[in-house]
Write a structure and sequence with these properties.
The protein is an alpha/beta fold. Helices cover 43% and strands 20% of the residues. Helix 3 packs antiparallel against helix 4 and helix 9 packs antiparallel against helix 10.
């Protein structure tokens, strides 16, 4: 069933046109991934669909009583509200009822003999029973528990950015709606939380539309992909791997048409330069035709975002860590007895839950903090480049983008001695000549993030330290960054929860496992998962196929790969499985009932959720 339709939507900011009469239909079965280069208007389109922004022209039609639940890229919160109050700070009648119920329960716990409060609890309990909202309350608290939120009393202003994102996500996921809208839901999330969110969204009924840079996430969750490109929208009826294949086909067809247009353009150009055009209608129409072909050529020339790998010589001694230890509290070490000597082409991915000490480790490498024990020695030729996970403030945001880059360098040189000017390098980052002279304040959040990445790279580092580099970067920039790192001569040290990115760029993993222990594993993220959990990651696009073939790779099963026959012991185990499954299902029913009964006991609810 169609829930919302956009017809001939147009939207501009000043002279910049975002949408050129785009049309879109969303049904209740759609799980949509929205992709495109930063600055093309992805977030603006979501806001228009959510009713938070108006389009310049066009028509939007939706089903009766159409409702949305919207997660913005940056959490919208009241710093004085507690987590619980923020969760229930939604305008839907259901959420207001649950909020009132929780407030009354807290009042009753403080004043158990108050008959007026007890009477109100009885009344609202009857309303909740009549509306069958107990499952909604259970869902809210189950989501909170799954996201690692068990204490609901802290105020929002005291939380970290990642914690606030989780609270906002829980609030949005819990709200009943016709359309769930998520703008970068995986930012600031650790791998386990992202995996939970994947499974939750796959099992969730109803329409969804999301922007995310996580390509594994897109490949597993969505069944339709929309691409915003130069004011047009392209629809692909499949996941991210399907999109890559079909876009390659589209670009191939456009390439053939572009060659024809170029040939025709040259003929028309020769005629124009000959100066033989007369005053007749035929000549005027031919001039108009020439201009139309010229415009089409500009559209056909899709700019590929390519990186220019700057170079600074790196000596044999790089970073040497011996018995390194660091803690904020003595009984809670973040890093304990860590030793490692980096080599010239080390590609290290750093993983672990939030708060395990990953960013602290980067600060040690940058020497912004000092270890409590052990030694850290940095080689004399090391030149650090640091790209932080947060959007860095720019002192003068009225500064033009080009001038902001020139503050670091006017030119950059690669290993072969080839030089690029700051302006030329910006063009490879899809900053057109107009965009280069745009004040930084006028750039979108994603464009500012891309600009700050360029600022780091133009300084020609030979040790790159990246803290969640994929946050707020579009997929084209990510693919180009991966290409850049392929040719980068130096060390890469990267904290990231983006599994695809880690699979693509690293050859070793530092796993922060808690209590100060850092385990070192050879191989990328998938190799690490296979060795530690015994579970091979399946149903994901091949990282190398995107940049090389742009089509998904399908594994061919050979005779040698046919499964072996099961043993007698395994056969006996299989025979007992139906009884085991039946027993576990009964246990699940019991746990589910206990969760409903423990809806106000968050500690108990967390334990039951773990079971």
């Amino acid at each position: 069933m169609t829930i919302i339709t956009l017809n001939e939507i147009k939207k501009s900011y000043g002279i910049v046109e975002l949408f050129n009469a785009i049309s879109l239909t969303i049904t209740d079965q759609d799980k949509i991934g929205l992709i495109g280069i930063n600055g093309t208007g992805k977030s603006t389109l979501l806001k228009i669909i959510a009713g938070l922004e108006h389009c310049d022209s066009g028509d939007i039609q939706s089903k009766k009583d159409f409702s949305v639940s919207y997660l913005p890229q940056e959490p919208d919160y009241d710093p004085e509200l507690t987590i619980l109050e923020q969760i229930y700070d939604r305008k839907s009648p259901e959420m207001i009822l649950l909020s009132t119920y929780d407030q009354l329960l807290r009042q009753m716990s403080q004043d158990p003999t108050n008959q007026e409060i007890a009477s109100k609890v009885t009344q609202i309990t009857e309303t909740l029973n009549a509306k069958d909202l107990w499952q909604l309350e259970t869902d809210v608290k189950t989501i909170l528990s799954a996201l690692g939120i068990t204490d609901l009393t802290p105020k929002m202003g005291t939380l970290s950015g990642g914690q606030r994102k989780r609270v906002e996500l829980a609030s949005v996921l819990a709200k009943p709606c016709d359309l769930l809208i998520l703008d970068e839901p995986t930012n600031h999330m650790d791998s386990q939380t992202i995996l939970w969110l994947e499974n939750h969204l796959k099992g969730r009924k109803g329409a969804q539309i999301m922007i995310t840079h996580d390509r594994y996430f897109l490949d597993r969750v969505v069944n339709k992909t929309l691409e915003l490109d130069q004011g047009e929208i392209y629809t692909y009826l499949g996941n991210y791997a399907y999109f890559l294949e079909k876009k390659a086909d589209r670009l191939s067809r456009q390439s053939i048409m572009a060659k024809k247009n170029k040939s025709l353009y040259l003929k028309e150009l020769e005629w124009i330069r000959a100066g033989v055009q007369g005053r007749g209608t035929k000549s005027k129409s031919r001039i108009q035709r020439f201009e139309a072909i010229k415009d089409q050529l500009k559209q056909d020339q899709e700019t590929e975002l390519t990186m220019f790998s700057a170079y600074t010589r790196l000596g044999n001694k790089i970073i040497e860590c011996d018995q390194l230890a660091f803690y904020y509290e003595k009984d809670k070490p973040l890093i304990q007895d860590f030793s490692y000597h980096f080599t010239r082409n080390s590609r290290i991915g750093i993983i672990g839950p939030n708060g395990a000490g990953k960013t602290t480790f980067l600060k040690l490498m940058l020497e912004t903090i000092q270890p409590q024990s052990g030694s850290l020695s940095i080689g004399p030729t090391v030149k650090m480049g640091y790209f932080s996970q947060e959007m860095e403030p720019i002192d003068n945001d009225q500064l033009r983008a080009l001038d902001y880059i020139k503050e670091s360098a006017e030119f950059v040189e690669n290993e072969a001695g080839y030089r690029l000017s700051a302006s030329q390098l910006m063009e490879t980052f899809l900053f057109s000549s107009d965009a280069q002279y745009t004040p930084v304040s006028k750039l979108s959040g994603g464009e500012r993030r891309r600009l700050q990445l360029l600022k780091v790279l133009i300084d020609s580092p030979n040790v790159l330290i990246l803290d969640e580099p994929t946050n707020n970067l579009d997929l084209d920039t990510l693919k180009a960054l991966e290409d850049y790192l392929d040719s980068f001569i130096g060390v890469v040290l990267c904290v990231s929860h983006d599994r695809y990115f880690l699979d693509r760029i690293v050859d070793s993993i530092f796993a922060f496992e808690g209590h100060g222990h850092v385990a070192i594993h050879a191989g990328n993220y998938s190799h690490y998962i296979e060795r530690t959990d015994g579970i091979a990651i399946q149903e994901k696009p091949n990282p190398s196929s995107e940049t090389k073939t742009k089509t998904p790779v399908h594994k061919q099963v050979t005779e040698k790969e046919k499964p072996l026959k099961i043993s007698f012991k395994e056969q006996k185990l299989l025979e007992t499985l139906p009884q085991t499954i039946e027993k576990l299902e009964r246990q699940l029913e019991t746990i589910g009932q206990e969760m409903i009964n423990a809806s106000s006991d968050y500690q108990k609810l967390s334990e039951l959720q773990a079971q």
